[in-house]
Amino acid sequence: MSIAAASLCGRWRAVTQTALQRPTMRSTLFVCVGGSPNRMRDFAIFIHQELGLDGDGSDIADICAGTDRYSMYKAGPVLSISHGMGIPSISIMLHELIKLLHHAKCRDVTIIRIGTSGGIGIEPGTVVITDIAVDAFFRPQFEQVILDKVVIRNTQLDQKLAESLLRCSKEIDDFPTLIGHTMCTYDFYEGQGRLDGALCSFSKEEKCEYLQKAYIARVRNIEMESSVFAAMCHLCGLKAAVVCVTLLDRLQGDQITHSHGVLTEFQKRPQKLISSFIRKQLQMCT
Ligand SMILES: O=P(O)(O)O[C@@H]1C[C@H](O)[C@@H](CO)O1
Ligand SMILES: O=c1cc[nH]c(=O)[nH]1
C-alpha cells in the first residue's frame, strides 16, 4: 500500500463505518468521482443537503487534505472524490480507493464517475450514460502496459445500473439523457481531433471524417478517464457507471462557447441525476 493510502486508511475506515451503521440507511456506499476538486466539494455539499443530513454541509472537510493530489469528502453514505485529468491520474486514485474499500470491508459499493465531455452529434447539455468505453480506434478495450506486455482489459460498464440511471433521468423535467458509447482519449486537443491546440497535424476535413466515423461507431461523447475507470471497476467487481454531460457538439466546433452560467448549469446535471438515483436507492423519494 502506498504511503498516501496507508495514511488515509484509519481515518477513512472510521468515517465509513459510522455511515454504514446509521440505522436509517441501508449498508450501501456510493462513491462519486470527477475531475475537479471544487466540483466534487460542491457535489458533497449538494448531496449532504439532498440527503437531509444535519447542517447545511458547508463545513465539510477534505479527508485527503494531507495531500494535494486529490480531495475526498464524505456526506452520509456518499464519498465524493476528485481524480484530476486523464487516465494516469484517475488510475492512481482508483488503486488507492479500491484498497481502502477492501481494507474497510465495504460491501455493496456503487461507483459513478460524474464528469464533462464533448458530445458527438447531440445537443450540448445532453447527459450521456456510458454503456461501454472505447479507445481512439473505437475498440471496446483498455490497453494496460504491464512490464513489457500490453494487457487488454474489458471496458463494459454495469448495464442494469445504466438502465436504472436512464429511468431515473426520465423523471426529471427537461433532462436530455441517453445511453451510448464514450470514447476515452489520452489528450484533449489532437487526441480528440481538435484544430485549436498548440499543435495540429491534420486538416478540418480529416477531423470531420474522424468524428463522423466515431458517430457511426455509436460514440456519443469523448472524455479522458472512462476506459481505465471501467476496466479497473470491472476487474475488481465494483458496480460502476460513467455519467457525463456534454459541453458542446464536436461536429459543430472545438471551442466551448456557452456562457459560464450555462456551463455551470450543465455541470450540475450529472450531480442532479446521481442525487435522485441515490435518494431512490436509499428509499428517500416521496
Ligand atoms: O471530470 P471532468 O469533467 O474533469 O472530465 C473531463 C475529462 C478531462 O479530465 C477533462 C477535460 O477538460 O474534463
Ligand atoms: O470536449 C471535451 C469537453 C470536456 N472534456 C473532454 O475531454 N472533451
Mind explaining what this structure looks like?
The protein is α/β, with parallel strands linked by helices. The protein has 7 helices and 10 strands. The protein has helices at 3-21, 37-50, 87-103, 159-170, 204-216, 226-236, 260-281; strands spanning 29-34, 72-75, 78-82, 109-119, 127-134, 141-146, 149-154, 177-184, 219-223, 239-249. Helix 1 (3-21) packs across helix 3 (87-103). The radius of gyration is 19 Å and the shape is globular. The termini are far apart. Residues 1-26 have low confidence and may be disordered. The structure holds the ligand O=P(O)(O)O[C@@H]1C[C@H](O)[C@@H](CO)O1 and uracil.
Topology:
Blueprint: H1 3-21, E1 29-34, H2 37-50, E2 72-75, E3 78-82, H3 87-103, E4 109-119, E5 127-134, E6 141-146, E7 149-154, H4 159-170, E8 177-184, H5 204-216, E9 219-223, H6 226-236, E10 239-249, H7 260-281
Parallel strand pairs: 1-3, 1-4, 4-10, 5-8, 8-9
Antiparallel strand pairs: 2-3, 4-9, 5-10, 6-7
Short description, anyone?
The protein has 286 residues and is an alpha/beta fold.
Q: How many β-strands, per DSSP?
A: 10
Mean pLDDT reading: 91
* Share of residues in strands: 15-25%
Helix count, DSSP H or I runs of 4 or more residues: 7
- Principal-axis shape equals globular
Strand adjacency order, main sheet: 4-9-8-5-10
Helix residue percentage: 25-40%
Biggest beta-sheet profile: 5 strands, mixed, barrel
**Structural Rg:** 19 Å
Bound ligands, named by name, code or SMILES = the ligand O=P(O)(O)O[C@@H]1C[C@H](O)[C@@H](CO)O1, uracil
InterPro entries: Nucleoside_phosphorylase_CS, Nucleoside_phosphorylase_d, Nucleoside_phosphorylase_sf, Uridine_phosphorylase_euk
Domain Nucleoside phosphorylase: 31-279
Protein name: Uridine phosphorylase
Enzyme class: transferase
